[in-house]
Design goal:
By secondary structure, the chain is an alpha+beta fold. The protein contains two helices and three strands; from the N terminus they run βββαα. A hairpin with a 4-residue loop joins β1 and β2.
Length: 75
């Protein structure tokens, strides 16, 4: 069973990776830490950022984007 956000540990290096499913796409990124408490915080931040990015991309596809939104995507 896949949950919307997961933490995975790679035993060899003991670093944490995020697996997120946003907008039907699977995103896997390193959280660049070996501390579980830090990984949980970064996972929440990454999830929030990816969902914001997907939402702004959807707005562009629907033609509801403002100039400010386009500048944010470009950054």
């Amino acid at each position: 069973m896949l949950y919307p956000t997961e933490l995975r540990a790679q035993p060899l290096f003991r670093s944490y990776y995020a697996r997120l499913r946003v907008g039907g796409k699977l995103i896997r990124k390193s959280l660049k830490t070996d501390v579980l408490s830090v990984a949980k915080l970064r996972l929440a931040d990454l999830d929030k950022e990816e969902r914001r990015r997907a939402e702004s991309t959807d707005a562009a596809a629907r033609g509801e984007m403002t100039v400010g939104d386009a500048v944010e995507i470009r950054k």
